[in-house]
Design a protein that fits this description.
The chain has helices at 34-50, 59-69, 73-86, 115-128, 144-149, and strands spanning 129-130, 135-138, 151-157, 163-169, 172-179, 184-189, 196-201, 204-209, 215-220, 225-230. The protein has 232 residues and is α+β, with helices and mostly antiparallel strands. A hairpin with a 2-residue loop joins β4 and β5 (172-179).
């Protein structure tokens, strides 16, 4: 992604606005592969090449958002680690500069801003859950240590207003729990380590076949609750 049709970003810069098509606008879909995937990969590669010398605090959680779209959990987690450890004071406020002079950027001032903290919280949520293209994907961009040691979230709101909870441990998704806020068909990626899925709703159990990483659809009514697990 470029600044204009005839000009590329050629130095480190605090704003990643030229790459807004990746996030937050979601005009490109990494999962579709092809040209979209190539553009996202090459844009991120270019940002890595230019480095962080002229970045400020908010640049790092924004980069974490890009890594979350690339399904790079290690990169996303590292960017958030840098943000919290280098650019935030003890009370959690973002001071936007490398005020302790760790050498992460050349800016050593400490103006207090709020938006970077909000972006960091959002980036963490995008690591745990993504529904931006209409497909529910749990834990799409978390580090391997989280997959092994465990991670979970509760009642995150996805597209169409659905509330989603899930847990992962020892590299396996344990469950996906849905609470529908509206009638609708909900498309879910099979992130279980099984091709057989158990769906519990309306006091009934339903078994479906779905290959790992393929998608399956569940039709839910407003206020209906659904619990999904892999068949043991």
């Amino acid at each position: 992604l470029m600044l204009s049709p005839d000009e590329s970003l050629n130095e480190s810069h605090r704003h990643h606005a030229h790459a807004m098509a990746i996030y937050p606008l979601d005009l490109l879909n990494y999962h579709s592969g092809g040209r979209d995937k190539q553009i996202i990969d090459e844009t991120i590669n270019n940002l890595e090449l230019l480095g962080t010398g002229l970045w400020v605090g908010f640049s790092f959680p924004w980069m974490a958002e890009f890594y979350s779209r690339q399904c790079n959990g290690e990169g996303a987690a590292y960017q958030l680690k840098l943000f919290w450890e280098v650019f935030c004071s003890q009370n959690g406020f973002n001071l936007n500069g490398d005020f302790n002079k760790y050498g992460i950027t050349q800016w050593h001032y400490r103006p207090f801003t709020l938006e970077a903290n909000m972006c960091a919280a959002d980036a963490l949520q995008e690591m745990l859950l993504q529904t931006y293209d209409g497909i529910i994907r749990v834990f799409p961009a978390i580090p391997e240590s989280w997959r092994k040691n465990g991670a979970s979230f509760s009642s995150f709101r996805g597209m169409k207003g659905i509330l989603i909870s899930s847990s992962i441990k020892n590299g396996e998704v344990e469950f996906i729990h849905l609470v529908a806020q509206n009638d609708g068909n909900y498309l879910i990626q099979n992130d279980f380590n099984s091709d057989k899925i158990i769906i519990k709703r309306r006091n009934c159990l339903e078994e479906i076949n779905c290959h790992c990483k393929d998608n399956f659809t569940i039709e839910l009514l407003k206020d209906e609750i659904c619990h999904i697990t892999a068949k043991k």
